[in-house]
Design a protein that fits this description.
With 203 residues, this protein is α/β, with parallel strands linked by helices. The protein has 2 domains: 133 residues, HAD superfamily/HAD-like (Rossmann fold, 3-Layer(aba) Sandwich), CATH 3.40.50.1000; 60 residues, no CATH class. The protein contains 11 helices and 7 strands. The strands form 2 sheets. A 5-stranded parallel β-sheet has the order 5-4-1-6-7. A two-stranded antiparallel ribbon has the order 2-3.
Length: 203
């Protein structure tokens, strides 16, 4: 039986269309241009002591003639993200069975504040969420995974990890963590339950 299951957050617990696609449709900002700006900003705000995220977006929004203030911009962004309630219920079941559940996410302060307020059921059904802006460790850095395992006193081989990023999966595998691309809840259940059943048979 796995001692711990680690999930990415966005694209796993929370589903959404790409923000760059939504911005192009609503405000006419070219997808590629928006994505390049977003990538540069996210690289900064995912770290501790980052400036307020909107301060980095403001000049670009003005250039694009997008009349959104901070509240409007983040509301547009975050309201497009939807919870997967079936996964929350499954994490509750895993914890009842004695398996620890963690989230490991590259994210920034304003977004995680929104998540903790609007999707509190996620956080009440896991053991801990590790956000890069709080820890200083950004995936795919090996330190992001090592810090979690060391703090929780869990060996890599006792852990399974799910993410929608192939880069993150590859690094986790190199550390000895059984890691899989996220293909939905049913696929994850099969992986977890097959492992747990096989270990019960061997023991």
């Amino acid at each position: 039986m796995y001692k711990a299951v680690i999930f990415d957050l966005n694209g796993v617990f929370l589903e959404s269309r790409y923000l760059s696609d939504r911005f192009e449709e609503t405000y006419g900002v070219p997808n590629k241009e928006f994505f390049q700006v977003m990538k540069g900003i996210m690289d900064q705000v995912r770290l501790p002591d980052a400036p307020p995220a909107f301060s980095l977006w403001e000049s670009h929004l003005k250039k694009w003639n997008v009349g959104l203030n901070e509240t409007g911009f983040f509301n547009f962004w975050f309201s497009g993200e939807h919870l997967v309630p079936e996964l929350v219920e499954y994490t509750r079941q895993l914890r009842e069975q004695g398996t620890k559940v963690f989230i490991l996410s590259n994210n920034f302060k304003e977004r995680t504040t929104y998540y903790r307020e609007q999707f509190s059921e996620i956080f009440s059904n896991i053991d801990r969420a590790y956000f890069s802006w709080e820890t200083g460790h950004v995936k795919p850095s090996p330190e992001a995974f090592k810090a979690l395992l060391n703090e929780q006193h869990i060996a890599p081989g006792q852990t399974v990890y799910f993410d929608d990023s192939e880069k993150n999966i590859q690094i986790a595998r190199e550390l000895g963590i059984q890691s899989f691309i996220w293909h939905g809840l049913e696929a994850a259940k099969r992986i977890i339950e097959t492992n747990n059943n096989s270990r019960e048979i061997h023991h």
